[in-house]
Amino acid sequence: MKNQPLDKDQKKEAMKQLRNQRKQHIEAVSAIMKTQKKEMKTIREYLQQGDATVPAIAAATEIPVNLTLWYVMAMKKYGEVVEVQKEGGYF
């Protein structure tokens, strides 16, 4: 069986069918991304007030602690937030 290249109209039709097949999945993922962006924005706005711990951020923003930790670690990975030294710590 040979794979023959599709012409322009066939490519358009194939993409249209693919989008229709995956429509629900695309909408679900878009909704998740929208929620994540909203929650991360809320965390950023809270952190503009000053330093805070993950439990404090979670309590203030009403985002579950596990998600707050995940968002903060992602922000740290990409340089959006940094850790501060613990007061009275050895380090």
Short description:
The protein is an all-alpha fold. Helix 2 packs across helix 3. The radius of gyration is 22 Å and the shape is elongated.
Walk me through what this model shows.
It is a single chain. The protein is an all-alpha fold. It has a domain at 20-77. Helix content is 66%, strand content 0%. α2 packs across α3 (54-61) and α3 crosses α4. It is elongated. The N and C termini lie far apart (66 Å). The mean pLDDT is 90.
Please give the alpha-carbon distance between the first and last residues. 66 Å
Gross geometry: elongated
Structural class: mainly alpha
- The residue ranges in which pLDDT falls below 50 over 5 or more consecutive positions are none
Strand content: under 5%
What's the mean pLDDT score? 90
Helix content: 55-70%
Query: How many alpha or pi helices?
Result: 4
- Count the beta strands: 0
Oligomerization state of this entry? single chain
Largest sheet: none
- Global Rg: 22 Å
Order of helices and strands: HHHH
Q: Layout of SSEs?
A:
Elements lengths: L7 H14 L1 H25 L6 H8 L3 H13 L14
Label this structure with key terms.
91 residues; mainly alpha
